[in-house]
Amino acid sequence: MTGQSGFDPAALERFADLLVGFGANVQAGQIVAVGGEIGKEEVVRAIAASAYRHGAQFVDVAYFDPHVKRARLLEAGRDTLGFVPSWYGERALALGEQRCARVALSGPVAPGLFDDVDPALVGLDQLPFVRETITTINERTTNWTIGPCPSRQWAHLVHPDLAQDEALALLVEELTHVLRLDEADPVAAWRERADMLIEAAGRLTGPRFDALRFEGPGTDLTVGLLPSSRFIAARFETADGIVHMPNLPSEEVFSTPDPERTEGVVRATKPLVLGGSVIRGLEVEFRGGRAVRIDADENADVLRGYAARDDGAARLGEVALVDGDGRIGRLGTTFYDTLLDENAASHIALGSSYAFCVEDAADLERANTSQIHVDFMIGSDEVTVHGLRADGTSRPVLSAGRWQL
After folding, report:
1. For 181-207, how does the pLDDT look when each residue is reduced to its tens digit (9 = 90+)?
2. Needs which cofactor (predicted)?
């Protein structure tokens, strides 16, 4: 018998154990912070139970209610929408200071909730994201993971032509596949895939490309790299040596770009869900590293609001490549969830960079900083990527979803 999430009890326990035991790699005696929206209670409770089975000292659950956010957007003063109580950030920092583990759940629970709200207002309130989380990530003080949580509402968004129960069953089937839970040993399968991605990251780092160039329909974008930018993938390690998988599923190889050297135009290849709104037909133009034009068929003002948050919000903090061997892209499904869609296609991110992708202290001082980090997808089989050397020569990197290195 399936529950709220569409998982049967055994599958739900297996899913929770994958996120807790392998993804976050929860250690005995740790405090475990679990985050999810109202509507994900069944999965949150399963994660809490798994965390205690893995020896957690305490599980601290934080629920976010998007309906309360909607009320704020409609009723509160515009000049208050960027305000975040100090204890939100203090909690994020305390999780790092106390070397806690973190498990978060992605997947929309109320699609379309903000469709009748001014997109410019939606861009002002970025909760549940808080900027201090980026600090904790860069300092590598928590072992953490994010995984997708199915729901009927999300299933209807992804598969609108199916009956509700059929849509949920199909979404659960797809998530089971991309999470490799259909393997006899999902952990072994993930370790094998992570090894492949880490190898690809090494091959990308080795040539020390000066820039990457993306070319495809509506896209001609050059993303400069810092001299000591390195590509990493899949497997993270905390400052205390705890290995973890920050995203499940994870199919990307990524690095930190030079925030002053992005030039050209890029067209998103998948919709972007941001602040509860769906941005379709996104096109962004960069000059001198800054996004000078943000257009879209729908809800461009949401991303414009995010990009105006601070000086670094309109510059890039991440460039990521995704090959065609991952399971998400092969499905051909648009999930309307960044965790999944960004692992189906190469992508870039406006906002804060990842310090651990930069090897030289002088370069790290140049890396982008911001209160935001917003990924959007720019890759497809029609988009080719070349590595550009400082002497002007180039080398193919990714074509039709296959590594060329």
Report:
1. 999 999 999 999 999 999 999 999 999
2. Co(2+); Mg(2+); Zn(2+)
Nearest residue to 174 (alpha-carbon basis) of 336, 63, 322: 336
Q: CATH classification of 9-147 is 3.40.1830.10, yes or no?
A: yes
pLDDT digits (tens, 9 = 90+) for 37-70: 999 999 999 999 999 999 999 999 999 999 999 9
- d(C-alpha 45, C-alpha 33), whole Å: 12
Q: How far, in Å, CA of 80 to CA of 163, rounded?
A: 41
The dihedrals phi and psi of 359, each to the nearest 5 degrees, come to: -90, -25
Strands (E), 114-208: 143-148
* 100-124: b (≥16 Cβ within 10 Å) or e: bbbbbbbbbbbbebbeebebbbbbb
From residue 64, give the alpha-carbon distance in Å to each of 29, 120, 277, 300, 310.
Answer: 26, 21, 16, 25, 25
Contact of 313 with 126, CB cutoff 8 Å: no
In this prediction, residues 320-334 reach a mean pLDDT of 93
The domain limits of the chain are 9-147, 187-403
- The model's pLDDT over 356-383, given as tens digits with 9 standing for 90+, comes to 999 999 999 999 999 899 999 999 999 9
